[in-house]
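Lab meeting, item 3. Inverse folding demo.
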């Protein structure tokens, strides 16, 4: 579960909490077999493509609703959203201090760099985000 966005010094920048357990998916075994880096890649691709159904498999429902509201507000105001908001996903590393995997990420072009924390200590045994993208 994504527990937050951390800077390059592993200082928490944005924390999100799951208010409910992640749902068990029909194809849960496929998601449970994903590596931390592949989970981050799938989630960032889903967010970039504004695929809320796929994004909901990785982030808390509140995050999906927040993105949905943002998209609706932008549409009402006539703001054209970028077709693709790409992020590069790099290596994953374990932090025993945080009891979480960290995955290095950066926007393309390199505007912002960050680390995402994810965990799989949930009943579905899937790596899920408990933090912001």
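The presenter then showed the designed sequence:
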């Amino acid at each position: 579960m994504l527990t937050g966005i951390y800077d390059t010094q592993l200082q928490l920048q944005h924390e999100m909490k799951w208010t409910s357990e992640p749902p068990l998916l029909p194809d849960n075994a496929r998601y449970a077999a994903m590596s931390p880096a592949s989970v981050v890649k799938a989630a960032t691709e889903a967010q970039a493509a504004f695929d809320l159904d796929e994004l909901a498999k990785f982030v808390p429902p509140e995050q999906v609703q927040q993105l949905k509201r943002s998209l609706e507000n932008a549409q009402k105001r006539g703001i054209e959203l970028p077709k693709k908001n790409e992020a590069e996903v790099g290596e994953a590393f374990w932090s025993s201090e945080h009891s979480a995997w960290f995955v290095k990420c950066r926007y393309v072009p390199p505007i912002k760099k960050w680390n995402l924390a994810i965990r799989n200590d949930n009943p579905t045994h899937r790596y899920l985000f408990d933090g912001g993208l």
